[in-house]
Amino acid sequence: MSPEGSRVVLGATSERVRILFISGQHLVADAVRVALESRGVEVVVPAWTGRASDSITRQRLVGWQVGAGLVVGDFLGPEQREAAGLLGRLPLPWLLLVEEPADPGWSELVDSGATGVVPSSVALDDLVARLADLVLGRARAAWPDRDQLEEEWRLRRVEQEDQRLRMATLSPREHSVLALLHDGLSVREIAELTGVREGTVRSQVKAVLRKLGVSSQLAAVAQFQRWSEQPERP
């Protein structure tokens, strides 16, 4: 990259923006890296040594000469996730870029020291500006949306726990019926598949709706989908 391409215009001055970049999915990583480089951001990708504690160190940080970090949270492998968690121990501000910031699954990484959480739908120029602010030492402590985000996490955890408890009340047969509804089968098809009367399946569906606290099969299927997407289920 040419020297002119390694600078981002910030007001009346041009400042070098060089960041540490962590991502666990090659296609996504390449797309984000190329997009950032198209705006003049220099991107440093760690060479993984097999242990995150060896890959992310103060000594390596000095050699990289980076002023901020960017972690693409979705699709992180175990090593990359551990490495991201280690960033909080280093004198480096960093952003977490994720598809759904309201997912409470990101709270652990945020607590490890993220300077901010940014949705992957963010405009490229906005992302570059945020990274440039971090490199220049601006907005490190200010995170006006953090309280709101943490409240969203709390509400989402409450919702997930309620879903988990309601799902736990279903009998094995009711759970099976709900799973088949989720797969797109009709009541008649479920009856034919399981060898029971259609009226029996309808009674099981009614029991499922009552236990889940919903009024329609569509709502029950949607709740099953959300439950199935939770990272940890009993």
UniProtKB/TrEMBL annotation:
Key words of the record: DNA-binding, Transcription, Transcription regulation
Pfam families named in the record: GerE
Source domain of life: Bacteria
Keyword Transcription (UniProt): yes
Keyword Transcription regulation applies: yes
InterPro entries: CheY-like_superfamily, Sig_transdc_resp-reg_C-effctor, Tscrpt_reg_LuxR_C, WH-like_DNA-bd_sf
An individual GO BP term: regulation of DNA-templated transcription
Domain HTH luxR-type, residue spans: 163-228
CDD domains: LuxR_C_like (cd06170)
GO molecular function, a single term: DNA binding
Record PANTHER family: DNA-BINDING TRANSCRIPTIONAL ACTIVATOR DEVR_DOSR
Protein name: Virulence factors putative positive transcription regulator BvgA
Gene source species: Nocardioides dokdonensis FR1436
Taxonomic placement: Bacteria, Bacillati, Actinomycetota, Actinomycetes, Propionibacteriales
